[in-house]
Amino acid sequence: MNALIFLIVFPLCIALLAAVLPAALSTLRRIIGVIANIVLCVVPIYLLVTYLDKGPAYFQIESHLINIFMLVIEVFIAGFIVYISIRAKRYLPVLLVAVQSVIMLTFEFTSGSGMRVEHSLFVDKFSIIMALIVGIIGSAICLYAIGYIPEYHEHHKEVKDRRRYFAFLMYLFLSAMFGIIFSNNLMWVFFFWEITTICSALLIGYRNDQQSIESSFRALNMNLLGGLAFAAGIVYLYSSARIMELDKLLQVDKSLVLLPAVCIAFAGLVKSAQFPFCSWLTGAMVAPTPVSALLHSSTMVKAGVYIILRVAPALQNTVAAKMLMLVGGVTFLVTALIAISQSNAKKVLAYSTISNLGLIVACAGVNTDAAVWSALLLIIFHAVAKSLLFLCVGIIEYRLGSRDIEDMDYLIMRLPKLTAVMMIGMAGMFLAPFGMIISKFVTLKAFIDSNPGMAILLAYGSAATVFFWTKWMGKIMSIKYGEAQIVEHPVSRWEQFTLAILAIATVVVCLGFPFISSRIIDPYLKDVFGKSPVVDTFNILVIYVIMIGILIILPLGLMYYAYVNKNYRRVGTYLGGANVDNVSFEGPMDHKQTADLKNYYLTKYFGEDILCNVGVLVSLTLIFIMFGVAAL
Amino acid sequence: MKTLFELFQSLGLAERMLAYVLIAPFIGGVLAGIDRKLTARLQGRFGPPILQPFFDVFKLFQKERIVVNKFQNFNIILFFVFTVFSGALFFCGADILLMIFGLATAGTFFVLAGYSVSSPYSHLGAEREIIQMVSYEPMVILVAVGMYMVTGSFKVADIAMYQKPLILALPGVFAGFLYILTIKFRKSPFDLSISHHAHQEIVRGLTTEFSGPALALIEISHWYENVLLLGIVYLFFAFNPWLGIVLTIAAYLFEIFIDNNYSRFKWQLTFLSSWLFTAVAGVSNIIVLHLIK
């Protein structure tokens, strides 16, 4: 239990320290940051080792005083939101916060004293997986930020240097994430939930210009709406079933908890940026790169799918679960298609995140052992590979002065090491047999058994996924005849080190998936479903042969072509005339022509404006049906 | 024939893989020869000998190795390895989904090869190749889904041993597969990225910058892939091996016939028509199967 409390309180202390220590003491701040990050990596691993062979454990904590304390903080946060909203002349957040506070305050004063919560904290294998993701990836991103933020302020002189505030929010975020994943008391989950909402909104608005304030308030509005549903859900839960705990939610009569579970799942949908709420996450790319990486990989959106997966058993075999599944499925397909039409690297990554989260939500809606198995693996693979890709794009942005994929020609010649790392991340995202493909493979099987309609969505969606990743990968690995300027040198050691860690983590997670599956995920599934999916050993063997094969062939092959193979004649590309250099040639009439290589984006078919509307309308309908069937 | 079939059944996993790796290129090469001969006859020419594809490939191996960049042929080797491996997985009776993902990866490496040389023609070919991949991929997955829904297994070995006619349960899926088979065989009207016909393009798309042994390897991969695809066609008729083989050959001849009767489509039409055809034929078949179960 102490480890759990430590993981919640420790980042909080670091956050306060980061806010208090003056920026001038940069060496001290860095040392503290490094130590804190190491601790944050080690403690979840310690948790894993301790609980590896044990079932879930529940802990009792004297909670009434803590509840009062949390209430005070909540009121303070509500006041703060009201303050910043009125200052920015935006009144929707004020309304949302007011309603929410009224609900929570009335609830606390009418039933707070009589409420008895047996176990406030708990830990099981799923929490440990989440803790490892938050701890290791979250702190890796914080490490990256140490190198990134000074550079950010060099490039953006107009942005006020508030790095203390930034570090404070980053660590507070991590603390709240640990709070969400270890709390069994839903009041506590809600409390931490609201902290992540306000933290994300403030981090998105870090630049403090028109666009980021806009995005910041959009994120705030949507997530407050989710929070409102969450609050209403737990109040209703207590009044109908007299419980306030996550584990009891799944034990009592389903008809009592259906509506609260739907409300909480709705909050999860907002947080994990599913349709119709995906615009807050795509708007969040105005924030500095570490923020995007944090929001997309280890925090925020993962909190959304975490809570959905937790309450999904309460929806089992209801129409509401089918609607949840369809919202996820539609989001998966539509955002994968939209990603084809985007040339902004961060936006492609954002849509790909939403798409993958959609798949996880769909798995939660299906909620069989095989579906949850692949959902958990998706969470892991996605967190590692996506954080890596975001951090790479962050560096590229400053080296090339652009985050447009069309400007990334010959990247492998200009930033060889970074491109290699990026390729690892991309391979983890879409290339068989690495990473995501393993879970897609199982997802497909899980879908066919329960609902082939989902298998059809998956079939189309996977094709779209291959499209946008392959054309991007092709772009960065093209090599031109002649020399290109290498621009790699001034990448800070902090950033390089983080990328190395995450690249290694991607490979390790891919290679280690049988271990993760058999030791961590399967026991969890046995607790929840009483069985775990049988994965064909022959298939795993084949996947392993391919992975090891590639890992051996790739470096050997590249070395062979780089150093050993001399038996070739190198010529310029064929351009349809006499080459002047790699991209221009003498055309007819002595006219110099230049060939420009651009990718297809098929905006006519997959434009954001068309498809977003489709997604929003379809999913809104589905969500209304979900609430409708739960309320009746 | 019967004994041959039983002989193949009696082989172990590794032996079946080996059998595919050794025999498939010969079958694929001969099929390509038949294709060229037939096409020539349809066009009123005499045509090359049936074994001409083998002569071509041997000749390509003797050519000088001309490259645009040092690493371009590595992608081709990966393409070759993955194609052969997927085929071997199929013929040893392994998981059909695994085979599909392997084949998709092979295709990805082929596209990356086209990109890596950064030549405008290869680049355009690579873009078109991706569009082709996106066009056929949903249907290929639906074939696996349909077969699983009928037979209850993803294992090619189990599907091949299924005693009832698969085609009767999956007519729509088969029609959809036949449609995208034209793309996979790189036949007109879907030979957008590279064409076997000289009249279709002035500069050859994706493979513009590949020559000599690399081009030979692409050709051999293509043979392997064709045999694998015909293997999938066979699965639909596997309840009767004789009928299966006859109809598989018929499907191949049908594709040659289509090839000679169409000129190239634009990519828009290729893409839209295959997704729509997949939706109409494949998806409806899957839904019917789900409803009657």
Q: Could you please describe the fold and organization of this structure?
A:
The complex is a heterodimer of chains A (632) and B (293). With 632 residues, chain A is mainly α. Chain A has a domain at 329-534. Chain A has 25 helices and six strands. In chain A, the strands form two sheets. A three-stranded antiparallel beta sheet of chain A has the order 4-5-6, with no helix packed on it. In chain A, helix 4 runs parallel beside helix 8 (210-241) and helix 8 packs antiparallel against helix 10. The longest helix of chain A has 32 residues, at 210-241. The radius of gyration of chain A is 25 Å and the shape is globular. The two termini of chain A are 40 Å apart. Chain B has 293 residues and is mainly alpha-helical. Chain B has one domain. Chain B has helices spanning 2-10, 13-42, 52-62, 72-91, 96-116, 120-151, 156-160, 166-169, 171-184, 212-236, 241-261, 267-292; one strand at 66-67. In chain B, helix 2 (13-42) packs across helix 11 (241-261), helix 6 (120-151) runs parallel beside helix 12 (267-292) and helix 10 (212-236) packs across helix 11. The longest helix of chain B has 32 residues, at 120-151. The relative contact order of chain B is 0.15. Chains A and B meet through helix 19, helix 20, helix 23 and strand 3 of A and strand 1, helix 4, helix 5, helix 6 and helix 12 of B. Strand 3 (569-570) of chain A pairs parallel with strand 1 of chain B.
Number of helices of chain B: 12
State the assembly state of the protein chains.
heterodimer
- Number of structural domains of chain B: 1
Write down the overall mean pLDDT of chain B: 91
Number of strands of chain B: 1
Low-confidence stretches of chain B: none
The most extensive interface between chains reads:
A-B, 61 and 63 residues
Query: Could you tell me the strand content of chain A as a percent range?
Result: under 5%
**Span of the ends, CA to CA of chain B:** 36 Å
**Strand order of the main beta sheet of chain A, please?**
4-5-6
Fraction in helix of chain A: over 70%
Q: In DSSP terms, counting alpha (H) and pi (I) runs of 4 or more, how many helices of chain A?
A: 25
- Overall pLDDT level of chain A: 88
Radius of gyration of chain B: 19 Å
Largest sheet of chain A: 3 strands, antiparallel
Structural class of chain A: mainly alpha
